[in-house]
Amino acid sequence: MLRRAKPLFHKLLGSAILMGMLGHQAVADEVERWQVNMTPGVTPVSQEIYGLHMLIFWICVAISVIVFGALAYTIYAHRRSKNREPSTFHEHLGLEIFWTAIPFLILVVMAIPATRSLIHMYDTDTEVDLDVVVTGYQWKWQYEYLGKEVSFFSNLHEDSNAARQLGSGVDVNTIPNYLLEVDRPLVVPVKQKIRFLVTANDVIHAWWVPALGIKRDAIPGFVRESWAYIEEPGIYRGVCAELCGRDHGFMPIVVQAVEQAEFNEWIAQEQAAAAELRELAAQTFTFEDLYERGEGVYNRSCAACHGAQGQGVPGAFPAIAGSAVATGPLEAHLDVVLNGVPGTAMQAFGAQLSPVDIAAVVTFQRNAFGNNMGDQVQPVDVVQQQNQ
Amino acid sequence: MAHGPAKGISRWLFTTNHKDIGTMYMWFSFAMFLLGGAFAMVIRAELFQPGMQLVEPEFFNQMTTMHGLVMVFGAIMPAFVGLANWMIPLMIGAPDMALPRMNNWSFWILPFAFLMLASTFFMEGGAPNFGWTFYAPLSTTYAPPSVTFFIFAVHIMGASSIMGSINIIATVLNMRAPGMTLMKMPLFVWTWLITAFLLVAVMPVLAGAVTMMLMDIHFGTSFFDAAGGGDPVLFQHVFWFFGHPEVYIIILPGFGVVSQVIPAFSRKPLFGYSSMVYATASIAFLSFIVWAHHMFTVGMPLAGELYFMYATMLIAVPTGVKVFNWITTMWRGSMTFETPMLFAIAFVILFTMGGFTGLMLGIAPSDIQYHDSYFVVAHFHYTMVAGAIFSLTAGIYYWLPKWTGKMYNETLGKTQFWIAFIGFNLTFFPQHFVGLAGMQRRVPDYALQFADFNMLSSIGAFMFGMSQLMLLFNVINTILAGKRAEKDKVWDGAEGLEWTVPSPAPYHTFSTPPQVK
Fold first, then answer.
1. pLDDT of amino acid A352
2. In whole angstroms, how far apart are CA B254 and each of A100, B90, B97, B388, B394?
3. Domain A38-121 has what CATH class?
4. Do the domain assignments include residue B515?
5. Which of B124, B333, B348 sits opposite A78 (nearest CB)?
C-alpha cells in the first residue's frame, strides 16, 4: 500500500521542501531514496513478517483514526468559546469494561498470526540443504561453508572504506553502494534451505539481512541458528545491527543468491583456490614480495585499529611503530598475530589469514613505520609455529 | 517559630527543606538536560550528511552512550524527583518530606556521580562508548579503562534514586493530612508512589549488573564471558530486568502530571480516577515480566519468545485505558489551551503513537526486522521525549506560578510549544522510515538512501534543541521579571491542596495539617 503511495509522497516532500537543499547526483539516484517501508523480502519468512507488519500497521491506523478523531473533535467542540459550562460526568463502568475488553480482543487477533509466523521461523531443524557458519569479528564477517572446506572473510569494500575516513576528501555520493559493499560477498544458492549458524569471536554482533528476514545476534561462545529459503537470484544487502565497537557502522553484509548450478561452479573454484593457497605456503618469498604483500594485508586487517601509519589509538589500541612486540623477538611477535591477546581487542589472525599473508604482514610490521628490524618470516615458519 | 531560609551558600548545601531540594533537583536536571542535548546535537550534526565530517567513530560512540546515560539518569529521573519533592508534600498536606536529611543527601551525591561520569571524557581511551545499555563483553573485556568510573557513577546514582524513593514512599504512606485517604490522593502522588516502589525494586538489580561487570574486569570472574563458563546474554537478562521497569519509572510520573493538567484545563474531573490508579499499578506489575522483549533476536527458545510476546502485548490494555481516560476527561469539558495544556495534549497524541510502535515492536516476528534499527530509536524517543520531557514541560509551566508567584510569558510559552512540537516530529517521525528501510542504530555514517530523511531529522533536532533554550529563557524571565500572579489559584479549573496555599508557596507550608473532606 505504502509502496504505491510513494511517488506522490516523493513529489510532495522532494519538490516542495527539499529541492534546493539536496545535491546528491548520479550514483545516489540509483538507490531507492525516500523509502518509507520495510522490504517484503525474498524469502517466505520475510514475506510473512512483512504481512504481519502491514496487518498491525493498519490495525494501528484504524485505532488512531478513532482515538485521534475523538480527540480532534473534542478539542474543536468542547473548547471554552463553544462550551462554557463543562459537564461533570465521570466514571462509567460499562464504558470502562468496554475499552478494556475490545483492545484485548484485538490483541488476540494479532497474536494468532504472530504465533504461527514465529513457529515457522524457528523451524531450523528440518530439511536443511546447506549450513553456513557466520562469525562476527570486530569489524568484519567470516563465512564458512560447513563440510565444503571453503571459508573466507568479508570486509567493507575498499572504496567505501577510503571514503568514510574523517576528512577523506572523497564525495561519498560517487561511491557505488556506499557502506553497503564488501570485498567478497556470501554466495548462496536459491531455492535451497540454508541454515545460518551465527556466532562471534569477540563482542556481540548481529547479522541482519532485511530481504532475508533474518536478524540474529552473534554471541561469542554460543551458536544461534536461523534459516532462509531464497526464492529469486539477486544481491541482498545488510548490516551489523548490534553495537560492536568503533566500526560497528562499517561491517556490511552482501548476500549473492545464484542458481544452484552457478553455485556449484563457484564452490568448486573456491575449493581449488584454497588448495592453491596451501601450496603457496610451501614456497619461499623474497623480502620485497613479502613487504609489498604485507602492506596490503596491513591496510585490510590491521589499520582499522593500529592506524594507517602504525600510530595506534592511545588508550585503546597500541601503536605498531616502535612497539615492543614489533621490534622484539620474532617468535613472540608471530605468536601475538597468530593467537591474539586474550582479554583484549587483539584477535587471533591465525584463522583469518593464510600463512602467506601472516608471513607478509609480520615482515611488513617489523620493517615499516620506522621499525627497522631487517628480518623476515617465511610462510613455512608460520605453518611450523602453528603446528607447535 | 517559623523561620526562613539560611543565608548564602549554606542554604543550599545544608537545606532539608523540600522546596529548596526540589528546586536544586530541577536546576541540576535542566543542566544535565542541556549537556545531554549538546551530545545529541553532535550526533545529529555528524548525521546531517552521509560521510564522516566532524568526529571520529570512537567519539561518536561516546556521544550516543553519554547522551543516553545523561538523559535517563541525569535529566529525566532527577527532574521528576524534583517535581515530587516540590509537589508531593503540597499535594498531600504534609509540612515536608518524611526524611529531610536523607533528602539533602540523596540530592547532593548526584552532582558528584555526574562529575565522575563526565570526567571520563578526559581519561585515556575516552568516555564510555558501549551504548547506554552497556552490553557485555563490549563493556567489560573490550571497554576503555574509564568503565570503572562509569560503574561507580552508576552505583552512586542508584543510591541516590533508592534514597529518594524511600523518602517518597515514607512521605506518602505516613504524612498525608487527615482525611486524605489513598484513594483521594492526586494522581501525580499515586504514580510517584508506584514509581518509587519500582525504583526500590530494580535499582539494586542494576547495581548487581554493574558489580558483576566490575568483578569481570578487575577480579577475574567470568559472569559474562563464555570462555570462563559465563554468558554474555546473562548480562542482557539482568540489565533488562532493571531496564524495562526503568522505562516506566521514566514515564509513570509523566502520566501523573498529565492527569493533573488535563482536568484543570478541561474544567472537569478526571473521568475514571480509580481505573487510572489500577491501570498504573497494572503497568508497573507488567513491567517486571516482559523484559526479554528487548532481546527477541538473541535466540531464546520458542516458548520464551512466545511468552514474552504475549506478556508485552498485554501492556497495551492498561495503556489504552489511560489514553481513553484522558480523552473522556476532555470530552464535553470547557477547554482552554494555555501552554501546559498544549504540552499535555501533545503528550497524549505523541505518547499514543509511541505506544502503537511499541505494540508493533512487541510482535516478536516483526521485531526481527525492527530490532536495533532506527525504528526503535523513533519509538523510544516518542515515549521518552514526548512522554517524559513533554509532561515535565507541562508540569513546569503548570506549577511555575505556584513556585515563583509570577506568571510566565504565555506567548513565548506557546511559541516554544509549537517549535518543540514541530521540531520533535521532524526529528523522530522520519526515523521510523529509515529504520524500516534498513538503517541500524548507533552508527556515525549511513548508506546514501537514508540521506534525505536524516537531513530532515537533523534540522528537526536543531529546532527542538533551540526550543529548550526558549524554555530556559522563559523560566529565568519569569523569576526575574514575571508579572505577579493575581490569584493563589492561578488556573481557575485547578484542584488540589497545592492551590490552597499562597503563591509563591511560603518556605514552610501545612505546619498544621489541613482537613480533607
1. 81
2. 22, 18, 21, 5, 9
3. mainly alpha
4. no
5. B333
CB B237 within 8 A of CB B295: yes
Assign 3-class secondary structure to B232-272: HHHHHHHHHHHHHHHHHHHHHHHHHHHHHHHHHHHCCCCCC
Q: Which domain holds residue B205?
A: 24-500
Q: Where along chain A do its domains lie?
A: 1-29, 38-121, 130-264, 281-387
Q: What per-residue confidence (pLDDT) applies to A102?
A: 94
Asked whether the predicted pLDDT for residue A367 surpasses 90, the reply is: yes
Interhelix angle B77-92/B147-174, rounded to 10 degrees, is: 10
Q: Which has the minimum average pLDDT: A283-287, A311-315, B39-43, B339-343?
A: A311-315
Q: What is the pLDDT of residues B460-507, one digit of tens each?
A: 999 999 999 999 999 999 999 999 988 889 999 999 999 999 999 999
B96 is catalytic: yes
Domain assignment present for residue B19? The answer is: no
Residue B264 belongs to some domain of the structure = yes
- With 0-12 CB in 10 A as exposed, 13-18 as middle and 19+ as buried, what is A55? middle
Whether A180 and chain B come into contact, CB under 8 Å, resolves to yes
| CATH code for residues A130-264 | 2.60.40.420
Query: For the sheet containing A150-154, what is the strand order?
Result: A150-154, A140-145, A130-137, A193-200, A224-229
CA distance A71 to A65: 10
Query: Considering Cα of B265, then B271, then B273, then B278, what sign does the dihedral take?
Result: negative
CATH number at residue B134: 1.20.210.10
Domains held by chain B: number: 1
Round the average pLDDT of chain B to a whole number and report it: 95
User: What is the biggest distance separating any 2 CA atoms in chain B, rounded to whole angstroms?
Assistant: 70
Task: State whether ipTM is beyond 0.90.
Answer: yes
Distance CA(A124)–CA(B266), nearest Å, equals: 56
Q: Which residue in the block uniquely carries the three cell numbers 615482515?
A: A363
Report if residue B517 sits inside a domain. Answer: no
Question: For residues A157 and A149, what is the distance between their CA atoms, to the nearest angstrom?
Answer: 24
Min distance B57 CA to chain A CA atoms (Å): 6
Q: Does A89 touch chain B (CB under 8 A)?
A: yes
Residues β-bridged to residue A188: A257
| The pairing of beta strand A224-229 with beta strand A193-200 | antiparallel
- CB of A273 within 8 Å of any CB in chain B? no
Cα B340 to Cα A321, B40, B260, B263, B416: the distances in Å are 61, 25, 10, 12, 11
Q: CATH second-level architecture of A281-387? A: Orthogonal Bundle (1.10)
Which residue among A49, A95, A204 sits closest to B366, beta carbon to beta carbon? A49
